[in-house]
Design a protein that fits this description.
260 residues, 7-stranded parallel β-sheet, alpha/beta, single chain, Rossmann fold
C-alpha cells in the first residue's frame, strides 16, 4: 500500500491543537511539507514548526481567520511563494459554538459558527481547488463530524455547518473529479480534545459518553490523524465525494443494539 507523502505540500487549518495538531504531525512524519494555520495560541504553532524543521522537515506557521476571504488568499499566496503550490488541504478549523436552543440562540453567535466552519471550509477549498484543477492533481479533505448525520440539541449551528460541509464536499468532488482532484470528508466522533474536555474529564459524563460508542472507548486525535494520512494518499486514490467516519461506531446508533 502506497502512503508515500514525501515532499507533498500540505495545509492544515486549525493545525496547532487537538485533531489538527495530530494531523499535522502525522503528515510531517510521512515526510510532507506542512503549513499550520492558526488563529490563537501562536506559541503552539511555532513549537510545532520548530519540531518539524528540527527533524529535518519543512514547515510554515500561518496565522489567519479562515472566514476572512482576504486572509485566506494571503496564506495560500504565502504557500505559493514558499512551495510553489499545494497538494493536500485539510480543512480542520472549526468551533462548536455556545449551547442554546434554536429559538434562544443569538443570531450573530449562530452565524459565527457557520462563518468559521462552513464558509471557512469553502474559502480554503476554493483557493486550493483553483490550484489543483490547473495541476490536475490534489486532495481536499474536509473535517466534518458525526453530527453531519446525528442531531445535537443546543448546537443547531454546528450540526447545520457539518451537514453543509458534507453536501458541499460532494458537490465540489463532482466538479473537481474530471481534473483528477479528490474532495471528501473525514468525520470524527467523540475524540479526546480540549473542545469536549468538560465531558471526558467528568466521571458521569464520560460514562454516559461511552454508552454512545460501540467500541467502548473515546477516540484519540491520532485515530483521526492516521485515517487522514491514508485518505490523502494514493492508497485512497479511488475515494472521493463521500464521508469516512472515525467514530468508534457512534454513527451506528448503538442505543438500538438491543432492538427498537
Amino acid at each position: 500500500m502506497n502512503i508515500d507523502l514525501k515532499n507533498k505540500r500540505v495545509l492544515v487549518t486549525g493545525g496547532n491543537s487537538g485533531i489538527g495538531a495530530a494531523i499535522a504531525k502525522a503528515f510531517a512524519t510521512e515526510g510532507a511539507r506542512v503549513a499550520i494555520n492558526y488563529l490563537a495560541n501562536p506559541e503552539e504553532a511555532n513549537r510545532l514548526v520548530e519540531e518539524f524543521t528540527g527533524a529535518g522537515g519543512q514547515a510554515l506557521g500561518l496565522m489567519a481567520d479562515v472566514s476572512d476571504p482576504k486572509a485566506v488568499e494571503t496564506i495560500f499566496g504565502t504557500i505559493d511563494d514558499a512551495w510553489d503550490g499545494i497538494d493536500i488541504l485539510v480543512n480542520n478549523a472549526g468551533i462548536d459554538g455556545k449551547y442554546a436552543l434554536g429559538w434562544d440562540a443569538d443570531a450573530d453567535v449562530w452565524g459565527q459558527v457557520i462563518d468559521i466552519n462552513l464558509k471557512g471550509t469553502y474559502l480554503c477549498a476554493r483557493e486550493a481547488l483553483k490550484r489543483m484543477v490547473v495541476q490536475r492533481s490534489g486532495v481536499v479533505l474536509n473535517t466534518s463530524s458525526v453530527h453531519e448525520v446525528i442531531a445535537w440539541t443546543g448546537y443547531s449551528a454546528y450540526t447545520a455547518s457539518k451537514a453543509g460541509i458534507s453536501m458541499m464536499s460532494k458537490t465540489l468532488a463532482q466538479e473537481a473529479a474530471p481534473y483528477g482532484v479528490r474532495v471528501l470528508c473525514i468525520a470524527p466522533g467523540a475524540i479526546r480534545t480540549p473542545m469536549n474536555q468538560a465531558v471526558w474529564e467528568n466521571a458521569r459524563g464520560y460514562k454516559d459518553l461511552l454508552t454512545k460508542i460501540p467500541l467502548g472507548r473515546i477516540g484519540e486525535p491520532e485515530d483521526v490523524a492516521k485515517m487522514a494520512v491514508i485518505l490523502a494518499s494514493d492508497a485512497a486514490c479511488y475515494i472521493t465525494g463521500t464521508t469516512v467516519f472515525v467514530d468508534g461506531g457512534m454513527s451506528d446508533y448503538p442505543s438500538f443494539s438491543h432492538g427498537g
